[in-house]
């Protein structure tokens, strides 16, 4: 079944993890065998060929670069200008993938419809370019609000104002507090440019503050349920209800610590914690029960978002295994239309409405 994944850090993997995503997945992992600089070395699940194998023809692909003040212990860049330059290198990688026919940027409704038609027509599958919608995870690299126009002109169509910790515009996971003063100007400019607000990673205070001040289109590219795993990174039922009322779609994520309670990084294993794709369906089902329908949840896997097979469902070897989800959903009683909604239809409906202007 045609599938949309609303959150993949492809350029980060290509540049910071030094992965040639054009290579077969086995070759990527073979080349990393024995490397110890990152915990997921040799455990990658994502490559462009695996996306095609799984019929994942459209993804939301990120740029990401955090600014860190001197007192901030998180990894990141020491100035917004450095962070901006990092995102521009990531953009250059996407453009290089376009130049060699591996990917195509989707940033208009006409482009979306043309890509969907082309994806079904091109044969063999190996020659299909993967469509990507450009998103910025954390706004720290936006040097000033005026830079947002530059980003939009380069294809940016979704933006999450914060990532982990305190940000220049908003507060993220594990932080507290409302938007920074420039955050309100950022939201106003996003609204003017029709850039989608990604509510993922906003701390509770900033989440409610942002939704109070933003009248544009809102989604959550990769988020799970606090009722199932109690952490501020997850959405409470109240937040899910608010997103549903705004017409949002929430992408279910596959990072094990967000899926099962009690996960200990570097200690827990997917099998020991019984972390499987069925657990992803638990989170999907919880959102559906709150929404009263299947219309507000999709996939936002975050696979290889600084983790690999060591920290994702044990029955997933590659991103192509997302094609196991339709059967699992059917086993839970979901009808064909519901399953199509969750695999691709909800994201398409959202984009068609957001880009109809």
Question: What would your notes on this structure say?
Answer:
The chain starts with a strand and ends with a helix. The strands form two sheets. Strands 1, 2, 3, 4, 5, 6 and 7 form a seven-stranded parallel beta sheet that branches. It has a two-stranded parallel sheet with strand order 8-9. The protein is built from 13 helices and nine strands. Strand 6, helix 8 and strand 7 (218-219) form a beta-alpha-beta unit. It is α/β, with parallel strands linked by helices and 357 residues long. Helix 12 (325-331) packs across helix 13. The chain is globular. The chain has a single domain (3-354), classed as TIM Barrel (Alpha-Beta Barrel).
